[in-house]
């Protein structure tokens, strides 16, 4: 009876060790983590960015690969639209021919791409897969893309924002100037009605102005006299 109990106790003693090894193995298997937006909304004719980020426990090497695939909303067929390994290779055929651009940076953990001239036919599911050996096991996130026409409400909100940023401040400035001019005009009328007299400084300024006018007229008359004498000589 004692001998039969010893192996059982040893098995129980090994359980914690097996648990530690299991979790360590799970950590190694899922050491590459990928994240992407679950839903992205875009508008016809406006570039759309599909974001994909990753984090790997291994250093980035030239063995790292990135693959983007697309599945239309009305079909189960999947097609490759982008491949990366040391250099970007967008698709040269199919729906996204010459419309996929690389906007990521693998050294920053960014595997994003951009779609130019999108249409409503591009609606569907996009998947981003990254492998960085020895980190090759990972989740594959999916992004649902919805492309629509930009509606009148969106355009109206843009116009309203432009009005707030440009026209309203200009209107406020004009109103302030009008108020200031009105106050100044009212002050001048009040002074004229109350028999306002100019100060000595204002009187001296007026006298100087009159003196300058007289000097200018005198110079003009002298110039005319000189011209007349010159003509009589000849």
From TrEMBL:
The chain crosses the membrane at residues 155-179. Residues 45-148 form the Ig-like domain. Keywords: Disulfide bond, Glycoprotein, Immunoglobulin domain, Membrane, Signal, Transmembrane, Transmembrane helix. One of its GO terms (biological process) is hair cycle. InterPro entries: Ig-like_dom, Ig-like_dom_sf, Ig-like_fold, Ig_sub, Ig_V-set, Myelin_P0-rel. Pfam families: V-set. It is found in: Membrane. GO terms for cellular component: plasma membrane. Its main location: membrane. It is a single-pass type I membrane protein. Belongs to the myelin P0 protein family. PANTHER family: MYELIN P0 RELATED (PTHR13869), MYELIN PROTEIN ZERO-LIKE PROTEIN 3 (PTHR13869:SF20). This is Myelin protein zero like 3. It comes from Moschus moschiferus. The gene is MPZL3.
């Amino acid at each position: 009876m004692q001998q039969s109990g010893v192996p059982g106790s040893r098995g129980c003693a090994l359980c914690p060790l097996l648990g530690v090894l299991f979790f360590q193995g799970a950590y190694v298997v899922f050491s590459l983590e990928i994240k992407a937006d679950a839903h992205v909304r875009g508008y016809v004719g406006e570039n759309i960015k599909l974001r994909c980020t990753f984090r790997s426990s291994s250093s980035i090497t030239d063995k790292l690969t990135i693959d983007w695939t697309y599945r239309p909303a009305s079909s189960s067929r999947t097609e490759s639209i982008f491949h990366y390994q040391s250099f970007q290779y967008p698709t040269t055929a199919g729906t996204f021919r010459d419309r996929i651009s690389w906007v990521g940076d693998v050294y920053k953990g960014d595997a994003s791409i951009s779609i130019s001239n999108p249409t409503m036919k591009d609606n569907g599911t996009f998947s981003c897969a990254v492998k960085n050996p020895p980190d090759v096991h990972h989740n594959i996130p999916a992004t649902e893309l919805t492309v629509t026409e930009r509606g009148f409400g969106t355009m109206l909100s843009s116009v309203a924002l432009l009005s707030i940023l440009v026209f309203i401040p200009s209107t406020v400035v004009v109103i302030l100037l009008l108020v200031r001019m009105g106050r100044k005009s009212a002050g001048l009328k009040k002074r004229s009605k109350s028999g306002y007299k100019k100060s000595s400084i204002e009187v001296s300024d007026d006298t100087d102005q009159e003196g300058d006018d007289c000097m200018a007229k005198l110079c003009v008359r002298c110039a005319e006299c000189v011209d007349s004498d010159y003509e009589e000589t000849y």
